[in-house]
Amino acid sequence: MKILRIVYDFPPPWEGLAPGPYELSQAQIELGNEVTVICGLWPKQKPLQVPYLGRMKLRRFMREPFRGCLFFTTAIFAFIAIFSLRIINRLAPNRKVLGFDLIHGHGHLPFYLHIYKKLFGRIDKTPYFFHLHITAAGRERKAKEADDKIDFLTRFFEWPLHKLSDKLGCQVAEAIFTVSESVKNEAIKYYGADPLKIFVVENGVNCSMFQPTRLEDQDTHSFERMIKEIQPQQLNIKDKIILFLGRHTDRKNLDNLILSLKSLPNEFKLLTVGRGPKTYLEHLKRLVKKEALKERVIFAGFIPYPETPAIYQNADIFVLPSSYEGFPKVVLEALASGVPVLVSGFKFEKKIAGLNFLKSTKPKLLAQEIQRIVDEDQKVNVELIEKEYSWKAKAQKIQNVYKKLI
What we know:
The protein is α/β, with parallel strands linked by helices. It has 14 helices and 13 strands.
């Protein structure tokens, strides 16, 4: 099949949602499909070098020049590109370069396509599949419940348009993919989505990259060397390493994770990987200084996705104490690396050895659970992760839905 993918985040840079659609596209290509991706382009980023360029084509448009204007910049450019390709498709259906059999949209970048399909869907029969990684309505509710600080543009401009895009997407799509049961329930509750159209397809993991092999046994990619470049002499592989990898924001409750160290032995050290708003990072660093934890907290900053296996493979536990999440791919990456995880903010129906959920994100409870999991030396069912949660397995599940409905 020839798939046209529309997604805001696509590498580079290798952070946030971006690696997921990239890995899914690669897995779909391995199944024999061709993929064209319409996506945002970060300023000063080099073109993506991928091994399947013959069957993956990228059409990039400059990302919103300032926060909150996506719906009047990148989303418009993306729709023009989609519509142009659609016209070419109709005029030259056998053209190999630009033709496509279906459109697979992610998130809110296909906003104007959703409006177009709502108005002209009876005329334009191009099959459309909508992928919800979160719902804007659900995120808004959870942010209010968590009493998060929400800026004016997000509350009164970005979220209302995002919710409208979600709702229209659920109405016009042949099928809706959600990354978890909780996102599925939110789509039904807030957007009136038809449950029979929804297919839960969780995020996947590249099991060739993320494996339970500690890197001190290998000849390359020395973990010690990598960490010394970040914080000389502060961390070594003999410490009990608590890993947090993701965006540093209020809803991740990193301040509580830092405070949990006060109830843990000194050999426990926290390694945080990722970016975040400058004000929040400064808040975290002030907290570390105030609590005299400077020698036990390492802010590694951003590490590109292809380099993160070395970080996971030398962690003793991965902790993500979020107030709310969709279905975090970092959880699967940790599990595939054989690292037990302690998480909150989302539900997961299947029980997996090594996957632990928090009842509260308070520092003392965090410390108790971290100590318990490390003391138990929990083993992860890596075979189950590879069998059911590899990107190949997820791509095949999506492929089956395509075939069923086209």
